[in-house]
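Quick illustration, no need to memorize.
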Amino acid sequence: MARSKKTDTAKTTAAAATAEAKTTKTASAAPKATRVRKTVSISLQYGGMEWTTDVLTERAVVAWAAEHGQKKTAAKDIKLYVKPEENMVYYVINGDSGSFTL
């Protein structure tokens, strides 16, 4: 019976090693944390009128696409400069500048 004790001990040790390996794999294979993208919306109110960043951005992209013969989806880098006292929005899209009235 001495052999069966050794065999039982060997089986127990092997089972423990297998369980530890599975635990290590599971811990290292944990899913990556996904980044949550924050959304910001600004509403500009001036002289009894109101504009949101979404509306101004869309109008700038449409004006840029029409002026430069580009598709709206080609606009990647968009910067808006709003001057409500002049009733104008100035934009720089992909290095090209332009403007439109509010």
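The mean pLDDT is 80.
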